[in-house]
Amino acid sequence: VNNLKSKVNFKRLKDTIDKSAEIGNIPVNGLKRLALSDEDKLMRDIFQVWMEEAGLEVRIDDFGNMYGKRPGKTDKPPVLVGSHLDTQPSGGRFDGILGVLTALEVVRTLNDNDIETMRPIEIVNFTNEEGARFEPPMMASGGLAGVFDREFIYSRKDRDGKKFGDELKRIGYQGKSENRIQDIYAFLELHIEQGPVLENENISIGAVEGIQGTNWLEITVTGESDHAGPTPMNLRKDALTAASQMIGIIEERASGKGVMATVGRLSLSPNVTNCIPGQVVFSLDIRHFDDYLRKEVLNEITEAIQRIADDREITVRIEDLWDSKTTIFNPKIVNLIEERAKELGYNVKKMPSGAGHDSKHMNELAPTAMIFVPSANGKSHDVSELTLDEDIENGANVLYEVVYQLANNEGDLV
Ligand code: HGY
Ligand code: MN
Ligand code: MN
């Protein structure tokens, strides 16, 4: 198989990325485009116009996932390409966004060159990948894969008590369940690495082999609020000092076993200087490639949390929000990414993903793999997130090649 003669139009891709970077922009060069917010709506509205201008047949499903279909010579199951346009509250301009806009650029370039593929190609914007406003993350791709049912998803509330289902309706993106994509030949997602590996090893393309398993929990510690003055220390049921001891144990147990553990969100009440905290609610994000080790450490941690609560005669509630086992992508597609990158003259490395992605769920529905491009200083989920132009262009060209090959592939990938 030889290479396509054509390459993506980087100037057009860059302009498109820059337009996205204006919608929900925050200082400096960051984005706050939370799922189902007004900014998300505006971005969706513009993305729909871009898809229509590219001649795509647009449809929205009941999770708000946006699809754009480019017909092929046949109506065999399509190659699906995409990612997410929602961001973290102090997020960057590239996380998820690159995957959606390079997919659009692939379509635009095929159009420019009058290339017709055997299979249809569909591009997709998945709703609420980040899980920053509505937990858990990768929610709509999870809905598509049957990991979460629609009632659960629609009922999820943000910190102001607004429901996912109501917000989806409010922004006008509650489509129909029959619009969910059905048969998929292969799924591809280009994404920033969000870690330091490619930059440190001066490699421009990652052929991603899988995603580490993840658990999300919410821990509610309930003691007794009281007056900060007259209450003797030994008679207190302070929820925050208890939670602090728990968080210390979490860090200790996880570090000891090389498991990633993060308490990213914490709220306490009454949250007043002269009141002893009566209740603390905090999140726990645990990740590791070894599903058994991750489970073992999680059990150790939950036992330790319960023991601390018992010793202090306070109560604790541990709620499981998400339990996602390690994902192994389709080796044939991973090899195709590596081969095409080499043909194009880029250095490429097979590697795992530390971060979660919609590909985690899509891998349940179809042969899936990801293409990584470097993150400057390994940073992400922060306004300082950056991927250099050359790396964006290289990644887009690899995506273009791989999508073209797959869209002309007859045989099965499994
Ligand atoms: O949580 C994750 O790993 C993803 O970046 N939302
Ligand atoms: Mn992402
Ligand atoms: Mn992210």
What does this 3D model show about the protein?
There is one protein chain. The chain has 414 residues and is an alpha+beta fold. It is built from 12 helices and 18 strands. It has helices at residues 10-21, 38-53, 97-112, 139-144, 150-155, 164-170, 197-200, 239-257, 291-311, 331-343, 359-365, 389-407; strands at 25-26, 30-31, 57-60, 66-70, 79-84, 121-126, 186-192, 205-211, 213-222, 226-227, 260-262, 266-269, 275-276, 279-288, 315-324, 327-328, 348-353, 368-373. The strands form 4 sheets. Strands 3, 4, 5, 6, 7, 8, 16, 17 and 18 form a 9-stranded mixed β-sheet that branches. The longest helix is centred in the C-terminal third of the chain and has 21 residues, at 291-311. The chain is elongated and about 80 Å long. The protein starts with 9 loop residues before the first helix and ends in a 7-residue tail after the last helix. The mean pLDDT is 97. The site of one manganese (II) ion has 3 residues, from loops.
